[in-house]
Amino acid sequence: MKKNQENNLVSWDGHIDKKYGKSGTPTRDKYEEDFENFKIGVLIQEARKQQNLTQEELALKCGTTKNYISRIENNASDIRLSTLKRIISEGLGGHLKLSLEL
């Protein structure tokens, strides 16, 4: 872990390595997967708020429940790809783009 000698700052990567292990370890892989799920919830929440929609209004537009939208936004629920696409396209009027890293 790299530390800045003058003020003992630790880099973000160093902090994550110390807390969750090096990239490729099971603990680090689990952290990174959970973080990606968290980001999806935050992106949906930000888009919903930007369009001045309540969770209930978004749920009605895409055929799900307020409780389900809340669980997604709070990272408490796995989400099916088909449901995610419906929330984004029908509920938010957007398009889902995915990328694959190997």
Relevant terms:
single chain; 102 residues; mainly alpha; 434 Repressor (Amino-terminal Domain); 0% strand; elongated
Structure description:
The chain has 102 residues and is an all-alpha fold. The protein has a single domain (12-91), classed as 434 Repressor (Amino-terminal Domain). It has helices spanning 12-20, 26-50, 55-62, 66-73, 81-91. The radius of gyration is 18 Å and the shape is elongated.
Number of helices: 5
> What is the top-level CATH class?
Mainly Alpha
Number of strands: 0
Overall pLDDT score: 90
Assess the beta-strand content as a share of residues.
Answer: under 5%
Topology order in helix (H) and strand (E) letters: HHHHH
Using the coordinates shown, work out and report the CATH topology.
434 Repressor (Amino-terminal Domain)
Radius of gyration: 18 Å
CATH superfamily: lambda repressor-like DNA-binding domains
The gross shape turns out to be elongated
Query: Span between N and C termini?
Result: 26 Å
Q: What's the helix and strand layout?
A:
Blueprint: H1 12-20, H2 26-50, H3 55-62, H4 66-73, H5 81-91
Helix pairs in contact: 3-4, 3-5
